[in-house]
Known about the structure:
By secondary structure, the protein is mainly α.
Amino acid sequence: MLLFNQKVIKFSVIIIAFALFAGCAFIQDPLGQKEMAQLRLNAESIFRRQNIASSQVMILTMDEEDGVLSDAELTMQEACAALNAYVIRAISSDDFLMLDFLAQQQVIDSLDGCDAATKKLEALLPSSFSVDD
Length: 133
């Protein structure tokens, strides 16, 4: 019986020590909540900027076709397709939080290209139409 009690005591000591060490270890933002919040803010900013830039291109090209602006806008629309599709699905979805992980990952992967294409188009717009973050 003594042998059983020694095993129980040793096992209990190990469990208690593990619990104490685990309790002392402080992990900041283990699920990446801050990073995801920042990604959402960046995506929202890029989405707004690219929509403003598209509106400005439509205003500037109402009377005549500007090939450079149109090409830059088309490039931006292609680069931002995943973001735009995700936003449309989010708006029309009953449960925004349940949108699939694959679509979210595609948006995250496309944000840099979308931002670069948006900046390129913004640089082509006249200074009276420039948009600052």
